[in-house]
Amino acid sequence: MTSNAATRTQGEWLEAWDPENEQTWDKALAWRTLWITTFSLTMCFVAWFLPSAIVPKLNPIGYTFTHSQLYWLASIPGLAAGLLRIVWMVLPPIMGTRKMVTLTSLLLIAPILGWGVRVQSPTAPYWELLTLAFLSGIGGGAFSGFMPSTSYFFPKRMQGTALGLQAGVGNFGVSLVQLLTPWLIGFGMVGFLGGSQMLTFPGKPDQEVWYQNAAFVWIPLLLIIAAISWTFLKSVPVTANIKQQFDIFRNQDTWWMTLLYIMTFGTFSGLSAQFGLLMANLYGIGNTDIVSGSGAAAKVLVEGYVPPDVVNYVFLGPLVGAGARIVFAPLTDRMGGAIWSLVSGVGLVGAIAYTIPSLTPDATSAATLHAGFNQFLYGMLAIFLFSGIGNASTFKQMPMIFERRQAGGVIGWTAAIAAFGPFLFGVGLTVMTPTAFYAIGIAWAIMCIGITWVRYARPGAPKRS
After folding, report:
1. I want to staple 415 with a disulfide (CB 3.0 to 4.6 A). Which of 29, 144, 195, 231 is the partner?
2. pLDDT (tens digit, 9 = 90+) per residue, 33-59?
3. pTM of the complete model
4. Torsion on CA atoms 299, 302, 303, 308, rounded to nearest 10
5. How many other CB atoms are found less than 10 A from the CB of residue 242?
């Protein structure tokens, strides 16, 4: 047991911890906890979105899945994350930060190892890849445990910045795995990691790749962060059993904030998972009006058009969204979250409306295809930008609306529901046209603008935040 009054502990558990008391609050411990758990959360997002970097290239390395099967593979991590976030949201008071972060880091090794093994030859049955996709959702599920536990360490006046930094840097894990994958697969590392595969792409020579590198490289980092977490993290005692934590559902603001976070993080996570496949199916190898056949025999049908290589673009959207979350988090501490949630909603309406015409590519000429692709790309990046702003603003609002214990539970719950984004986007793009699905997005954003104005942002609003 340590004797310092500010950080007195019984084992891993802090005995006296009040971040609202400047005289006793241990700022160094709070920030150390933030950076360690953020490192782990980044690895969580890497594991969660590893399938999004691999699935678009399964067919070019030898698998023969349909468009629908590929959408489902990219969607299942979102379904798993949403379900598992309901589990992780109740863990901080029960397990504490130290055990939860350490165990989560170790659990991520299983799906990453599995993907590294199964990309080495196109022989895995579809059900096995679905299982690996589901296990990748552990990385998404962890968010609902990490964010509430971090909020316990900081005073309310700093929670917008602290949670924005953690979530924003953690979100960079999406871009990290999508950005580094094309480079990592380009060379053999060491022989025991396995042999190479041949990647075929229309209009280009076959490329020798080592796709297992995109998975195996993260395993040492997970072992390191697990060791660091076990050694240096402490846990804040928050008295709440599972039944007590569920009292958040009697508060109407839990449901309003859930709708807002679906608009922001649901959009971010859903598009992050489906961006590559959507691009390929609209402007690349998945569009039969543009590309005929597959593999080495594939032929580009529109003279002068060069289909985009998805890996050169797919990381940009998550990068913009994560960066916006970090940049705007301090602004929400200064100006309040509700005003920026309004900006997010209005921006999303405009960005989605701008993108919709590009969802029906005009394959009459290379010029029209290039123009459509540019509109699609810039529109999507604008959607990511405004969803990132909303991710920062909503996480500022929740600690202001709810008392500390409830705020942690609401953060976990809203994150759990929004994590279904990749699954819902995948299903939506499978059962309806992209244009119809995006139109639903506009309607949802308009609804959220109304909720934000009436409940949180207008003068005299019941819960100005």
Report:
1. 144
2. 999 999 999 999 999 999 988 888 888
3. 0.78
4. -70
5. 11
